[in-house]
Amino acid sequence: MSSRTLKIICAVSVLLNIFLLGAAVGGVVWVRARHPLMGVGAIRVVGSELPADERRAFRRALREARLEMRPTAMAGRQARDDAATLLRAPTLDQAALDEALARARAADIAIRGHVEQRAVAFAATLPPDERAKLAEGIERRHARAHTQTTEPRR
């Protein structure tokens, strides 16, 4: 492989990483500006079919789970801020950028897992007919998401 080809490959790789990180940072800015992304809180929406008392209890349980994970969420935000700082540096430290993004991703996964565990624990307290309503909500969201990803954009 010639040095010119290697330079082109490296440049494309750096540009792709910058583009991906820019998209992540843009998403964070969008959410912080109080413009929620589609699908955020999807598990909460699934519970919208429950009776009013159960729906309130379900949302309260999810809110408490998110509050318990606040330190993890703050760590994820810090990791994204670190990634943005790394992108602004005169030379890109790709390893450090990968590590910062991995920390942000791990925080996101930990939060989602904790909230889902709380939802499962709550669902275990429901009678079968109300659990069926949760299942219908999941199926409806899945079908809607599948339709949105398979239909061509207009």
Would you write up a description of this structure?
The protein is mostly helical and 154 residues long. It has six helices and no strands. The termini are far apart. Helix 1 crosses helix 4 (70-88), helix 3 (52-68) runs antiparallel to helix 5 and helix 4 (70-88) packs antiparallel against helix 5. It has helices at 3-32, 42-46, 52-68, 70-88, 94-123, 128-150.
Number of strands: 0
* Portion in strands: under 5%
Put simply, the count of helices is: 6
Unreliable stretches covering 5 or more consecutive residues = 35-40
Q: Which sequence of SSEs, written as H and E, runs from N to C?
A: HHHHHH
Principal-axis shape: elongated
**Averaged pLDDT, please?**
82
| Rounded radius of gyration (Å) | 20 Å
**Largest sheet properties:** none
End-to-end C-alpha gap: 42 Å
Q: Level of helix content? A: over 70%
State the secondary-structure class: mainly alpha
Short summary:
This protein has 154 residues and is mainly α. It has helices at 3-32, 42-46, 52-68, 70-88, 94-123, 128-150.
Task: Summarize the SSE layout with pairings.
Layout: H1 3-32, H2 42-46, H3 52-68, H4 70-88, H5 94-123, H6 128-150
Helix pairs in contact: 1-4, 3-5, 4-5
List the keywords.
single chain, 154 residues, mainly alpha
